[in-house]
Amino acid sequence: MTTPPSPTLSPASFESRRAALALMEAIIPGAPGVPGADEETLRLVEEAAAHLSPKAVPALRAAVQALDAATVLAKGRPFHALDAAAQDDMLQRWSRDPVMRGPTSLLTLAFKLVHFDREPVYGRMGGKLNVVRDLERPRWLSQVTAGDDWPDDEPVVCDVVVVGTGAGGAVVGRELAEKGYAVCFVEEGDYHRRDSFTGSSMRAHQLFYRSGIALGNAPMPVFMGRMVGGSTAVNGGTCFRPPSWVMDRWCDTLRTDDFAPTHLEGYFRRVEAMLQVAPTEERYLGAPWEVFRRGAKALGWHHARINRNAPGCVGSGFCDFGCRTDARRSTNVSYIPAALERGAMLLTGLRAERVRIDNGRAQGLDAVTKSGRRVRVSAKAVILAGGAVPTPMFLLKQGICNASGQLGRNLTLHPSGGISGLFDAPIKGKDYVPQGSYSEQFLRDGILLLSAQSDSNYAPMVFPMAGRVLMDTLTRLDHIATLATLIADDARGTVRLEADGNVFMSYNLTEKDVRNVHRGMVLSAELLLAAGATKLYPAITSTPVMGRDELHRLAKMSPSASDIPLVSYHPLGTCRMGRDPRESVVDLDHQTHEVKRLFVVDGSTVQGPLGVNPQLTIMTLATRAADRIADVLG
Fold first, then answer.
1. Is the distance from CB of 387 to CB of 166 less than 8 angstroms?
2. Which ranges of the chain have pLDDT less than 50?
3. Is the pTM above the cut of 0.85?
4. pLDDT tens-digit series, residues 13-30
5. What CA–CA distance (Å, rounded) separates 365 from 367?
6. 337-339-342 Cα angle (round to 5)
7. Going by C-beta distance under 8 Å and a sequence separation of 6 or more, which residues neighbour residue 114?
């Protein structure tokens, strides 16, 4: 090992940096076809941590120090002084230790995320970055202006200003533009076209996502888009209608039949037609679909191809990093262009700072560009559509619309876990549509089963393991099929404002949630085994590999919340809708109780959980909201 350069990740000493490097090389030691981590990986981890958050660097530093100190206590020597076998033994021991599991998982995730996205590593594992050049320039692009290019001291004047361009904002804005209103979209992120979607996971997370983590008994990353198109531009294109019993619950809670399936049917049809929703052709679902169908059929369970908003999709990449072909009709290629063609305008790289209010009525926005210049927007109505985390944060920072005390509360997340299976025949999941199959057999119980394949630069994150067992798994990646479980959560979290102005998400899984996550994993294991899996890889940190004959052991386990790595893509419910201003933030027309002509139209007004991906639901309710807002505006 060569002498490392001056430290940034750990304290300014040779020993501490050597500890970080030794841990990283033990976590990703390399195998045939899978390059091992090295000093370049560590350098890139340092850069990525500094870019992510000022808190990320000390968090990684603390994790390194904790593991090195634990090694000295256990072995009498620091981690780097152990031989490779002893280092690997320590990694496996820590994965089973409730105390050491946290820092081990943090470092493992950080190292994997960066290392496997390095172009030489990704290439050795069969990946290839996408490069698109010479894109056409449609006429509507003239309606898009970067915030910093807006003329100094010139106000924006419109009928309606919409903050956000995702499933809520893009839809309500386009519908109002169709009705003849002058609409201005304000988007904090940039307009990325398909030449930006290279397939790099690090680039995607740095440019297209808003970072967030829900802290509690099972710390959970919450992925949210931050770009034109919002999360619709970085998801699998899955389009589910909510179950009828969910809509019945809304009607009971809100004391109205406005949200009954029969009343929303026309709105669903309008959205589905705009998105061209249909099942993906079987030939583009490939072996993962065959595995899902074979296993479900053997068990007598419901199974079907997922309806997606991706006509012409041929499975050309991992959807969560952006669609390389524009086959997926996310709002950046569907609703936003349609609105711009109707005369709407879009300002990118512009962050809404506060609502301008006069006599209890919204009159527009104050916003700030990336360079710090201020832009004033005058409007007859303001629509907040940043999402279930940014919207309550925006209102909390301004100190408005929280007389009920419900702002930022009632957060649901749809926790998602998973399990993989090894097959004799090749699966080659990265060559097909990542999410194409599902079973609603247990949907009434709050469990949705889905296929969920990742590209080779992201697949290592699916497996909660490190060291030699990780390398052994990755060498078999082309023979592995993965299933995800999505849980209709019982827990309710909060989004609150910290003293330093940052967001804090608090969320604790209930015992019922943990049981459902575990049961979903067992059910998925049954499906994989029925389809012919020879080995299982459950997303359980303490037991990441199981033999074909160990289903009974998996079923009898009682994993803790912290033992199951989970993620969320579906935050909902933080701006409660209701009739009573004492118990809710917005009324049934999406207008805030406290400020007239200030509307909230995004996932924060959707009462979760749905039990299914919420994209289509948010878009449908946004279509309905446009009619209600037009009635208010006259």
1. yes
2. 1-13
3. yes
4. 456 788 899 999 999 999
5. 6
6. 110
7. 41, 44, 45, 48, 202
